[in-house]
Write a structure and sequence with these properties.
- The chain is mostly helical.
- The protein has a single domain (about 10-260), classed as Serine Threonine Protein Phosphatase 5, Tetratricopeptide repeat (Alpha Horseshoe), CATH 1.25.40.
- The protein has 15 helices and two strands.
- The protein is globular.
Length: about 270
């Protein structure tokens, strides 16, 4: 995570928010499945009682038929939303053993492994989640996020570029590529890539947060702050602005960026049968 004040101080929470923002694009593509994206940060907006109700429903469906990949994927997504990431891995692992050629399941399993830092295993599972002759851009992008977390930025960028050949201009992949370039200290290229991503009609606030971060790393704080204020609700924008200023004031901001952890929240899927 980026440098933060001691626990208990208001800015500490804000700085942790920026830590999630720092690699939020990596998280975003890493959480994409063929069912659609899981939105980073949505945990905070889901009521605990709703998550618990959904977890119970998916648990019953999974227990009734552990061989059902959809049940495993749905149950694991809710577990991840509750912060029970190791349990989500266990659920997906059990189902993956029974369904070794189910690509969506393998993709979810690989991303779940990456969530808990089992990066080598994640890379191996994601490599089996699509066919070389039928590459899946979502999996390629997820493979890139794992490579970035392993410090293999050149390989990660190659994977993102392969994904972009399938879906030119896809903002989540461009945003991942931009952050990867930033991690490799190629800031002008990172800025150009993130600006391209931010111009896409489907780009969301997370892409603009990443652009603001890269601008801040180059000392372009006024523009970075303006982007944050346009991209986020007022209170959240101000919190991120303060966090950005605090991060940029530290001599180890590069180390903070490299060590930042993307918050991999999962949007709970619909209830079984919904």
């Amino acid at each position: 995570m980026p440098w933060c004040p001691p626990q208990g101080q208001p800015v500490a929470r804000r700085c942790r928010m920026l830590g999630a923002a720092a690699l939020i694009a990596l998280a975003a593509a890493g959480c994409v499945s063929r069912r659609g994206p899981e939105t980073t940060g949505s945990i905070a907006t889901a009521a605990p009682e709703t998550l618990q109700r959904d977890a119970e429903a998916w648990s019953k469906r999974f227990d009734a038929n552990p061989t059902d990949p959809a049940a495993a994927i749905g149950y694991a997504a809710v577990l991840r939303a509750q912060g029970q990431r190791a349990q989500a891995v266990a659920v997906l692992q059990q189902s993956a053993i029974r369904n070794p050629r189910h690509f969506e399941l393998l993709g979810a399993y690989g991303r779940a492994l990456a969530d808990i830092g089992r990066l080598k295993e994640a890379a191996e599972v994601l490599a089996r989640a699509h066919l070389p002759e039928r590459p899946d851009w979502r999996i390629l992008s997820a493979q890139g996020t794992v490579a970035d977390q392993m410090g293999e930025h050149a390989r990660a960028q190659s994977l993102y570029e392969s994904a972009l050949r399938i879906v030119p201009g896809e903002p989540t992949v461009l945003s991942n590529l931009g952050l990867s370039l930033a991690l490799a200290k190629r800031l002008p290229e990172a800025e150009r890539t993130l600006r391209q991503a931010a111009l896409h009609p489907r780009a969301d606030g997370r892409v603009r947060q990443n652009l603001a971060l890269v601008l801040g790393l180059q000392g372009k704080l006024p523009e970075a702050e303006e982007i944050l204020r346009r991209a986020l609700p007022p209170a959240e924008a101000e919190a991120n602005v303060l966090a950005l200023r605090g991060m940029m004031a530290q001599p180890n901001s590069w180390k903070a960026l490299r060590n930042a952890e993307g918050g991999r929240g999962a949007r709970p899927p619909a209830k079984p049968g919904a």
